[in-house]
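Onboarding guide, step 5: your first structure request.
Type a short instruction followed by the sequence, for example:

Predict the 3D structure of this protein.
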Amino acid sequence: MLALVAVVLAQIGDATWSSGRPPECSSLLGLDANVWERAKSPALREYCDLVASASSKLSGTAMMADSALEAARRAETLLPGRAAARALEGRALVALGQAPSAVAAFRDAVTKDSRVLDDPPALLAWARALARIGHFEEASVAYRALLPRSSSLSSADRAAAALEAGLVAMSRGPAGLDEAVAALRDAMRQADGETALVAAVALALARDRGGAREEAQSLMADRVRGDPRVWLSTATAQQILSVASSERFALLGFGLQPARAVDARQAWQQYLAIAPDSPWAGHARRCLELLRARGVLPRGAP
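The system replies with C-alpha coordinates like these:
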Protein backbone atom coordinates (compact mmCIF):
# COMPACT_ATOMS: atom_id res chain seq x y z
CA MET A 1 0.00 0.00 0.00
CA LEU A 2 2.87 2.39 0.69
CA ALA A 3 3.89 2.04 -2.94
CA LEU A 4 0.44 3.36 -3.82
CA VAL A 5 1.12 6.47 -1.75
CA ALA A 6 4.30 7.17 -3.67
CA VAL A 7 2.72 6.51 -7.06
CA VAL A 8 -0.48 8.47 -6.50
CA LEU A 9 1.09 11.51 -4.91
CA ALA A 10 4.13 11.58 -7.21
CA GLN A 11 1.80 11.64 -10.18
CA ILE A 12 0.04 14.67 -8.77
CA GLY A 13 3.20 16.78 -8.51
CA ASP A 14 5.91 18.01 -6.20
CA ALA A 15 4.17 20.78 -4.24
CA THR A 16 2.11 20.24 -1.10
CA TRP A 17 -1.64 20.90 -1.03
CA SER A 18 -1.66 22.67 -4.40
CA SER A 19 -0.95 19.24 -5.87
CA GLY A 20 -3.04 17.26 -3.41
CA ARG A 21 -0.28 16.11 -1.07
CA PRO A 22 -0.77 16.60 2.67
CA PRO A 23 2.39 18.17 4.12
CA GLU A 24 2.60 15.57 6.88
CA CYS A 25 3.00 12.80 4.28
CA SER A 26 5.87 14.40 2.37
CA SER A 27 8.58 12.78 4.50
CA LEU A 28 7.23 9.31 3.66
CA LEU A 29 7.61 9.57 -0.09
CA GLY A 30 11.30 8.85 -0.35
CA LEU A 31 12.84 5.42 -0.76
CA ASP A 32 15.83 4.14 1.25
CA ALA A 33 16.60 7.52 2.78
CA ASN A 34 13.27 7.51 4.60
CA VAL A 35 12.98 3.86 5.61
CA TRP A 36 13.92 4.74 9.18
CA GLU A 37 11.47 7.66 9.21
CA ARG A 38 8.68 5.37 8.01
CA ALA A 39 9.55 2.77 10.65
CA LYS A 40 9.34 5.43 13.38
CA SER A 41 5.86 6.53 12.30
CA PRO A 42 3.61 3.51 11.71
CA ALA A 43 0.43 5.47 12.48
CA LEU A 44 1.44 8.25 10.10
CA ARG A 45 2.32 5.69 7.45
CA GLU A 46 -1.13 4.07 7.68
CA TYR A 47 -2.78 7.50 7.73
CA CYS A 48 -0.97 8.49 4.52
CA ASP A 49 -1.88 5.15 2.93
CA LEU A 50 -5.55 5.83 3.69
CA VAL A 51 -5.35 9.42 2.43
CA ALA A 52 -3.76 8.24 -0.81
CA SER A 53 -6.37 5.51 -1.17
CA ALA A 54 -9.24 7.95 -0.65
CA SER A 55 -7.72 10.41 -3.12
CA SER A 56 -7.30 7.67 -5.72
CA LYS A 57 -10.90 6.52 -5.30
CA LEU A 58 -12.12 10.08 -5.94
CA SER A 59 -10.10 10.46 -9.15
CA GLY A 60 -10.99 9.54 -12.70
CA THR A 61 -14.27 8.32 -14.10
CA ALA A 62 -14.57 5.17 -11.97
CA MET A 63 -15.21 7.10 -8.77
CA MET A 64 -15.78 5.03 -5.61
CA ALA A 65 -17.13 7.68 -3.27
CA ASP A 66 -18.43 5.29 -0.61
CA SER A 67 -15.04 3.60 -0.29
CA ALA A 68 -13.27 6.96 -0.33
CA LEU A 69 -15.50 8.21 2.47
CA GLU A 70 -14.73 5.12 4.55
CA ALA A 71 -10.96 5.54 4.00
CA ALA A 72 -11.09 9.25 4.87
CA ARG A 73 -12.99 8.58 8.07
CA ARG A 74 -10.61 5.79 9.07
CA ALA A 75 -7.71 8.18 8.50
CA GLU A 76 -9.37 10.80 10.70
CA THR A 77 -9.87 8.23 13.45
CA LEU A 78 -6.27 7.12 13.20
CA LEU A 79 -4.74 10.62 13.40
CA PRO A 80 -7.44 13.11 14.43
CA GLY A 81 -7.06 16.79 13.75
CA ARG A 82 -5.47 16.61 10.27
CA ALA A 83 -6.93 18.67 7.43
CA ALA A 84 -6.40 16.14 4.63
CA ALA A 85 -8.75 13.47 5.93
CA ARG A 86 -11.56 15.96 6.55
CA ALA A 87 -11.14 17.54 3.11
CA LEU A 88 -11.27 14.12 1.45
CA GLU A 89 -14.37 13.36 3.49
CA GLY A 90 -15.86 16.58 2.13
CA ARG A 91 -15.03 15.59 -1.45
CA ALA A 92 -16.59 12.16 -0.98
CA LEU A 93 -19.73 13.66 0.55
CA VAL A 94 -20.11 16.03 -2.40
CA ALA A 95 -19.86 13.08 -4.78
CA LEU A 96 -22.53 11.29 -2.73
CA GLY A 97 -24.88 14.29 -2.89
CA GLN A 98 -24.59 15.23 0.80
CA ALA A 99 -23.75 18.91 0.42
CA PRO A 100 -24.55 20.18 3.95
CA SER A 101 -22.33 17.52 5.56
CA ALA A 102 -19.64 18.24 2.95
CA VAL A 103 -19.64 21.94 3.81
CA ALA A 104 -19.24 21.09 7.50
CA ALA A 105 -16.31 18.77 6.73
CA PHE A 106 -14.58 21.37 4.57
CA ARG A 107 -15.06 24.15 7.13
CA ASP A 108 -13.48 21.91 9.75
CA ALA A 109 -10.59 21.08 7.40
CA VAL A 110 -9.92 24.77 6.74
CA THR A 111 -9.73 25.52 10.46
CA LYS A 112 -6.97 22.91 10.68
CA ASP A 113 -5.04 24.12 7.62
CA SER A 114 -6.37 26.83 5.29
CA ARG A 115 -4.03 25.60 2.55
CA VAL A 116 -6.14 22.48 2.09
CA LEU A 117 -8.22 24.37 -0.51
CA ASP A 118 -5.10 25.06 -2.59
CA ASP A 119 -5.77 21.61 -4.07
CA PRO A 120 -7.97 22.18 -7.21
CA PRO A 121 -10.14 19.04 -6.80
CA ALA A 122 -10.85 20.01 -3.20
CA LEU A 123 -11.61 23.60 -4.23
CA LEU A 124 -14.00 22.40 -6.95
CA ALA A 125 -15.83 20.15 -4.49
CA TRP A 126 -15.98 23.02 -1.96
CA ALA A 127 -17.48 25.36 -4.56
CA ARG A 128 -20.06 22.76 -5.56
CA ALA A 129 -21.04 22.06 -1.96
CA LEU A 130 -21.55 25.75 -1.22
CA ALA A 131 -23.61 26.28 -4.38
CA ARG A 132 -25.83 23.27 -3.69
CA ILE A 133 -26.87 24.69 -0.33
CA GLY A 134 -27.57 28.09 -1.88
CA HIS A 135 -24.49 29.98 -0.64
CA PHE A 136 -23.97 31.56 -4.06
CA GLU A 137 -21.78 34.49 -3.01
CA GLU A 138 -19.34 32.24 -1.18
CA ALA A 139 -19.48 29.68 -3.99
CA SER A 140 -18.63 32.36 -6.54
CA VAL A 141 -15.55 33.28 -4.52
CA ALA A 142 -14.48 29.63 -4.63
CA TYR A 143 -15.09 29.27 -8.36
CA ARG A 144 -13.27 32.56 -8.98
CA ALA A 145 -10.23 31.17 -7.17
CA LEU A 146 -10.48 27.84 -8.97
CA LEU A 147 -10.79 28.76 -12.64
CA PRO A 148 -7.31 30.28 -13.15
CA ARG A 149 -5.80 27.19 -11.49
CA SER A 150 -7.94 24.50 -13.12
CA SER A 151 -5.33 23.26 -15.62
CA SER A 152 -4.62 20.20 -13.46
CA LEU A 153 -8.26 19.10 -13.68
CA SER A 154 -9.50 16.85 -16.47
CA SER A 155 -10.86 18.59 -19.57
CA ALA A 156 -14.40 17.55 -18.61
CA ASP A 157 -14.00 18.97 -15.10
CA ARG A 158 -12.52 22.22 -16.44
CA ALA A 159 -15.49 22.74 -18.75
CA ALA A 160 -17.95 21.78 -16.01
CA ALA A 161 -16.27 24.12 -13.52
CA ALA A 162 -16.51 27.08 -15.91
CA LEU A 163 -20.14 26.31 -16.69
CA GLU A 164 -21.02 25.90 -13.02
CA ALA A 165 -19.22 29.15 -12.20
CA GLY A 166 -21.34 30.93 -14.80
CA LEU A 167 -24.60 29.46 -13.53
CA VAL A 168 -23.75 30.34 -9.92
CA ALA A 169 -22.73 33.90 -10.84
CA MET A 170 -25.95 34.35 -12.84
CA SER A 171 -27.99 33.10 -9.85
CA ARG A 172 -26.72 36.12 -7.92
CA GLY A 173 -28.73 38.41 -10.20
CA PRO A 174 -27.66 41.37 -12.37
CA ALA A 175 -24.57 42.00 -10.22
CA GLY A 176 -23.16 38.65 -11.27
CA LEU A 177 -24.12 38.80 -14.93
CA ASP A 178 -20.83 40.04 -16.41
CA GLU A 179 -18.92 37.41 -14.46
CA ALA A 180 -21.42 34.79 -15.62
CA VAL A 181 -21.05 35.74 -19.28
CA ALA A 182 -17.25 35.53 -19.10
CA ALA A 183 -17.34 32.11 -17.43
CA LEU A 184 -19.99 30.78 -19.82
CA ARG A 185 -18.02 31.91 -22.87
CA ASP A 186 -15.04 30.03 -21.46
CA ALA A 187 -17.20 26.97 -20.85
CA MET A 188 -18.54 27.04 -24.39
CA ARG A 189 -14.99 27.11 -25.78
CA GLN A 190 -13.93 24.12 -23.70
CA ALA A 191 -17.02 21.93 -23.65
CA ASP A 192 -18.28 19.22 -25.95
CA GLY A 193 -21.35 16.98 -26.10
CA GLU A 194 -24.27 17.87 -23.87
CA THR A 195 -22.04 20.15 -21.78
CA ALA A 196 -21.51 22.33 -24.86
CA LEU A 197 -25.26 22.51 -25.46
CA VAL A 198 -25.94 23.48 -21.83
CA ALA A 199 -23.18 26.11 -22.02
CA ALA A 200 -24.60 27.56 -25.24
CA VAL A 201 -28.16 27.91 -24.00
CA ALA A 202 -26.90 29.24 -20.64
CA LEU A 203 -24.84 31.90 -22.40
CA ALA A 204 -27.80 32.78 -24.63
CA LEU A 205 -30.02 33.09 -21.57
CA ALA A 206 -27.44 35.30 -19.84
CA ARG A 207 -27.19 37.60 -22.83
CA ASP A 208 -31.00 37.80 -23.10
CA ARG A 209 -31.27 38.61 -19.41
CA GLY A 210 -28.73 41.37 -19.97
CA GLY A 211 -30.74 42.85 -22.84
CA ALA A 212 -28.60 41.54 -25.74
CA ARG A 213 -31.53 39.73 -27.36
CA GLU A 214 -30.15 39.62 -30.90
CA GLU A 215 -26.94 37.97 -29.72
CA ALA A 216 -29.00 35.54 -27.65
CA GLN A 217 -31.11 34.57 -30.65
CA SER A 218 -28.01 34.18 -32.82
CA LEU A 219 -26.41 31.88 -30.24
CA MET A 220 -29.54 29.78 -30.09
CA ALA A 221 -29.70 29.48 -33.86
CA ASP A 222 -26.01 28.69 -34.30
CA ARG A 223 -25.20 26.51 -31.30
CA VAL A 224 -28.31 24.84 -29.90
CA ARG A 225 -29.57 21.65 -31.51
CA GLY A 226 -32.12 19.02 -30.63
CA ASP A 227 -34.69 18.89 -27.87
CA PRO A 228 -33.44 20.61 -24.68
CA ARG A 229 -35.59 18.24 -22.62
CA VAL A 230 -33.32 15.40 -23.72
CA TRP A 231 -29.86 16.86 -23.13
CA LEU A 232 -30.80 18.79 -19.99
CA SER A 233 -31.89 15.48 -18.47
CA THR A 234 -28.62 13.63 -19.00
CA ALA A 235 -26.55 12.62 -15.98
CA THR A 236 -23.79 15.06 -16.94
CA ALA A 237 -26.18 17.98 -17.28
CA GLN A 238 -27.96 17.12 -14.03
CA GLN A 239 -24.64 17.05 -12.18
CA ILE A 240 -23.72 20.50 -13.51
CA LEU A 241 -27.16 21.99 -12.90
CA SER A 242 -27.21 20.78 -9.30
CA VAL A 243 -25.27 23.94 -8.37
CA ALA A 244 -28.23 26.11 -9.45
CA SER A 245 -31.19 23.76 -9.64
CA SER A 246 -33.91 26.30 -10.45
CA GLU A 247 -31.96 27.45 -13.49
CA ARG A 248 -32.73 24.13 -15.16
CA PHE A 249 -36.28 25.35 -15.78
CA ALA A 250 -35.07 28.73 -17.05
CA LEU A 251 -32.70 26.99 -19.48
CA LEU A 252 -35.48 24.65 -20.51
CA GLY A 253 -37.96 27.47 -21.04
CA PHE A 254 -35.48 29.53 -23.04
CA GLY A 255 -34.33 26.55 -25.07
CA LEU A 256 -37.88 25.52 -25.97
CA GLN A 257 -39.12 29.01 -26.92
CA PRO A 258 -38.11 28.99 -30.59
CA ALA A 259 -40.03 25.86 -31.58
CA ARG A 260 -42.09 24.52 -28.66
CA ALA A 261 -43.99 27.44 -27.17
CA VAL A 262 -46.48 25.46 -25.09
CA ASP A 263 -43.70 23.44 -23.47
CA ALA A 264 -41.68 26.62 -22.97
CA ARG A 265 -44.63 28.19 -21.15
CA GLN A 266 -44.82 25.19 -18.82
CA ALA A 267 -41.10 25.39 -18.06
CA TRP A 268 -41.25 29.12 -17.31
CA GLN A 269 -44.23 28.55 -15.03
CA GLN A 270 -42.29 25.84 -13.18
CA TYR A 271 -39.38 28.23 -12.81
CA LEU A 272 -41.60 30.92 -11.29
CA ALA A 273 -43.26 28.36 -9.01
CA ILE A 274 -40.00 27.14 -7.46
CA ALA A 275 -38.11 30.46 -7.60
CA PRO A 276 -40.73 33.20 -7.14
CA ASP A 277 -38.20 35.50 -5.50
CA SER A 278 -35.47 34.94 -8.08
CA PRO A 279 -33.77 38.11 -9.30
CA TRP A 280 -34.72 36.87 -12.78
CA ALA A 281 -38.43 36.35 -12.09
CA GLY A 282 -39.24 39.52 -14.06
CA HIS A 283 -37.31 38.19 -17.05
CA ALA A 284 -39.29 34.92 -16.87
CA ARG A 285 -42.57 36.84 -16.89
CA ARG A 286 -41.41 38.88 -19.89
CA CYS A 287 -40.61 35.66 -21.74
CA LEU A 288 -44.16 34.47 -21.08
CA GLU A 289 -45.53 37.79 -22.31
CA LEU A 290 -43.49 37.53 -25.52
CA LEU A 291 -44.86 34.05 -26.16
CA ARG A 292 -48.39 35.40 -25.82
CA ALA A 293 -47.58 38.40 -28.03
CA ARG A 294 -46.31 36.08 -30.76
CA GLY A 295 -49.71 34.39 -30.71
CA VAL A 296 -48.16 30.94 -30.36
CA LEU A 297 -49.91 29.96 -27.14
CA PRO A 298 -53.43 28.55 -27.14
CA ARG A 299 -56.23 31.04 -26.59
CA GLY A 300 -56.80 31.60 -22.89
CA ALA A 301 -53.39 30.22 -21.87
CA PRO A 302 -52.24 31.71 -18.56
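Each response can be followed by summary notes, for example: The domain at 1-113 is CATH 1.25.40 (Serine Threonine Protein Phosphatase 5, Tetratricopeptide repeat).
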